[in-house]
Design a protein that fits this description.
This protein has about 120 residues and is mainly alpha-helical. Helices cover about 55% and strands about 0% of the residues. The chain contains four helices and no strands. α2 packs antiparallel against α3, α2 packs parallel to α4 and α3 runs antiparallel to α4. The longest helix has 19 residues. The protein starts with 16 loop residues before the first helix and ends with a helix.
Amino acid sequence: MPAVRRSTAGRPAVPSTRSALCLAALTASLAACQSSAPPPVAAVAAAPAPVIADLAPGAGCGPTIARTQSIVAGDVRTGDLSEAVGQRFGADLGKAADACAAGRDAEALRLHAAAKARYGYR
């Protein structure tokens, strides 16, 4: 038979009231963490599909600039880009589109790349 540890007064050692209260509080707080209900599911709205059908067909600077104009317009619509910044970006892309329409593809692509870099687009 194992020996019972005795306190200095000769009585068996018992947990103090403070220890018992701490243990009860810990047990209650852990029990509150246990839930039988499934976790809530957050509703996520589907992002609108990008409009690509109206882009200029073919190769060269036209489709590239049109695609960026479509992206910028979508970003302004969704509020990801402010209206004022969208107008400035659009004006810069308009200069690139004018150069492209005039047959200056290299200049148009350079203006396009500069506009995208200026406004943080890749």
